[in-house]
Amino acid sequence: MAIDRAQVRHVARLARLALSEEEEERFAAQLGHVLEYVERLQAVDVAGVEPLSFAGDAAAGLPLREDEPLPCLPRDKVLAQAPEHNGEAFLVPRILE
Amino acid sequence: MPSADFEPVIGLEVHAQLLTRTKIFCGCPTRFGAPPNTQVCMVCLGLPGALPALNRAAVEMAIKAGKAFGCRIAERSIWARKNYFYPDLPKGYQISQYELPICSGGAVPVPGLGRIALERIHLEEDAGKNVHTANGSEVDLNRSGVPLIEIVGKPELRSAEDASEYLKSLRLTLIYLGINDGNLEEGSFRCDANVSVRRKGESKLGTRVELKNINSFRFVRQAIEFEIGRQVGVIEGSGKVVQETRLFDNEKGVTRSMRSKEEANDYRYFPEPDLPPLRVSKEWLQSVTIPRLPQDFADELTAAGVSQADARTIVSDPRLVDAHRRVGGDPKRAALFVVGELARAVNDKEADLDALAFDPALVREVWKLQDGGAISSTAAKEVLAELIRTGAAPQKIVERKGLSQVSDAFELEAVVDAVIARNPAEVEKYKGGKANLLGFFVGQAMKDLKGKGNPGALNALFKKKLGGF
Amino acid sequence: MKPELLPLSQAADAIASGAVSPEALLEASLARIRALDGRLHAFLRLTENEARTAAKAATQRRASGKSLGPLDGVPVALKDIFCLEGVETTCGSKILRGYAPPYDATVVRRLKQAGAVIVGKLNMDEFAMGSSTENSAFGPTRNPWDLTRTPGGSSGGSATAVAARLVPGALGTDTGGSIRQPAALVGCAGLKPTYGRVSRFGVIAFASSLDQVGPFAQDVRGVAHLLTAIAGHDPNDQTSSSRPVPDYAAGLDQGVRGLRIGVPREYFGEGLAPEVEKAVRAGIERLRAAGGEVREISLPNSPHAIATYYIVATAEASSNLARYDGVRYGHRAKASQLLEMYEKTRAEGFGAEVKRRIMLGTYVLSAGYYDAYYLRAQKVRALIRRDFDHAFASVDAIVSPTSPTTAFKLGEKMDDPLAMYLSDVYTVPANLAGLPGISVPCGFDSKGLPVGLQLIGKPFDEETLLRIAHAAEPSEHRLSPLAEGR
Hints:
- The structure holds 3 protein chains of 3 kinds.
- Chain A is about 35% helix and about 5% strand.
- Chain A is built from 3 helices and 1 strand.
- Chain A has helices spanning about 5-15, 20-40, 75-80; one strand at about 90-95.
- By secondary structure, chain C is α/β, with parallel strands linked by helices.
- Chain C has 16 helices and 11 strands.
- Chain C has helices at about 10-15, 20-40, 50-65, 105-115, 155-165, 180-185, 220-230, 275-290, 305-320, 340-350, 350-365, 370-390, 415-420, 430-435, 460-470, 480-485; strands at about 45, 75-80, 115-120, 170-175, 190, 210-215, 260-265, 295, 395-400, 435-445, 450-455.
- Chain C has an 11-stranded mixed beta sheet with strand order 1-3-2-4-6-5-10-11-9-7-8, sandwiched between helices.
- In chain C, strand 2 (about 75-80), helix 4 (about 105-115) and strand 3 form a beta-alpha-beta unit.
- Chain C starts with 7 loop residues before the first helix and ends with a helix.
- The interface of B and C includes residues 46, 81 and 273 of B.
């Protein structure tokens, strides 16, 4: 099942990826190729089969966490890796109106 | 006002922050008002490699809400990722619940409206705060990860007023449960409204518009009323209502279309692989207790003879309910005290409901003094006011203020005899049929007693001596 | 043999016996890294100072008889996917260049607690997406047996470091074969534990329901020591299991007599290189000769595994990688408004394979496609799991080739992503089913390239798996000419 450039552009926008025209073209072909391959799953009989979304142990996740405060990260460490900050908050460019 | 041909259809979505000590997926504190980005860790910051660790208390609070509203509480429910990009959403997805929420069904009892059905209640995490500035935004992630329950009501409301009452009742229940503080202004209790209109008699629903940014009860009514009017106007003008999200502009009192952030949000929900399905065993479910709820209290009070209005007043504030309980004794009398003397004192700033200066049980002592005749009903009011203000023992107040009234039979009889002897003309008139002179005699006796006579006893004595009517 | 050339468990013995001190062993490893890694490019960075401090402490502990266990003083290295506090952790990507986490991954903490000496961070395919380490933003790693070939991926650096004896032990991650396949291609042992056996906290996520942390060592006993140190419940990872952790090295010598070993017929068909098949079948024969009951089994849904994997893994990845948005850490592109910032940041920061997988994953989750792709794939996944459950009713482990070919040339599969994906055909089923799997060397092809034998075990039965693997591994571990210094 092929994927056209418009679909690629739509998906790229959902994924917040800027693509060049060349990339759009190339990815459309490559993704199309992969999608053709995965089409084979349509032929599998999955009637009555429950999806396997959780892969772990039946008793995983227990006991749940108790409601006790744990140490936070100091703010200077939090902001140390930030591309832009004002000492208190992360700064981001304006949202286009 | 909307045209009478149209019927509004309203459903409310409430997001309520849970009063846990820590966030839903990490151990950072949830306390409001801390300096920006001082209550964060690798998990709620969405750092590479971080994983969510579910807080038991958040689940327990959701169970309480489910029980309070009579929901079906799922033995197994699933976490889901809601994917979208925004600066206040550090992972680029919100962990929520989608296909299998923890609670479904249920209803909110609303005085005057009956029960308004719920779709579901589910758990999710809050996003951080994005504050717009001149050249961009400042992002504070303290709030990122605070636990929320989302309570989705069915579209059974038919007016802005009803919506407001529903919201009040819902909010009050959450406060009673101790799981939310009901603060609209601070944003710990948030409400979005889904509003559509249709011609009366039509069964099909009209196009739904979602209203956001409603942060007070007054605005709830204003926003919904405006939107109803706007939609009716659109339809009557042969237009079509567009399905969209609109923001309420509380300064102008209008709703405004939100600039669409992107082509319609495709959240690409899928089950959260980092969390096992949430299991609520029968044992756990049974072990979660909920306190008495507003409706239960209201019913109890009205059954005891308290007026509906007074019952609603008391029930609207858990502290009044508590005060009423602590007064004890006759519930109707206690109710009158609470909505009377106590409410007045609170209004006059003579009492603080969060820190009463008196033990409400002492009110019963004042009643005892009054019922036994030691003080008059007027005096009783004075004693109560003083009790509320100072917390002093009622007997001491009576003594200090010299409020005890004379009820002793011999003393009273002596005064009664004196008054009769002093007023032969009036006695004649009374015996001749002027029954209302009884008041005159009692008044005279009260004068002699400097107001401290027990009027009932005096009344009875005069009747006995003069021949009662 | 020089201690720095010893397989991990023997290096540990040498430390325990006093034959070599941790400090001396470390210096020898660092010298080998200096001499050989220029050509191999297994390492992205070294943490020499911290390593020397740790080695010194280990030496002191040994001297005062307070050893922390077999790993105390043993040099190890970490795939650059593990958060190491204060040390640059890139996950093989430009988008995290310069990023230093403020915390250690749980497995890193546990290695430190066991006394292991962390030497540095290892090269990998970007965000663990790849089967050759050619997708690293920092250049590929080369196979010690032939520098014109890849070591496999995505944990190519980890496998190479061990196979070339730069360090005795390393950690990697395996989502679709990323430990087992490189182990096979470089000729060492590499284990993917049962899903949930090892904590993923602090491990940069690719596909959350498939990722597992696992050890590399030349020898199975070394793998067992590493697994014992890192396995176990972590309250920070609610997908981790609470099952107790045994000493995985304890029962290794029990042999395979009486154990039933299944050979899946679907794994020996088209696409399997003849010389690989020959070496693997010889390995299976040796197991039969050693007393294993070998029988044919069927895993009928095997042909669907790659398709299932590439839908589920990319879907989860598209979501896991959304956090790389330039807001709080990592690369940020110059932009005057937010949408542009997001799109340029991610375009500049991610390589082509990562972009492809993000888009594929976004597509299969998007409105209108979710049911046909993602939901369906998770159902097929359940069928694949069911195949294994049926098989394990009659066998104790399953044996197969690890990779359909031996190491391929750099650049050979880069033009066709699908061709690269198909090299995972024997490894992805274990990830989909959450089962433990290990690759051990079982011979060489005519070009002198290593061949790997894969064993897949029952959930949480790493003990049986390691026992069979130990019986299957070569008694002597050949070094590549490069590793020998020739």
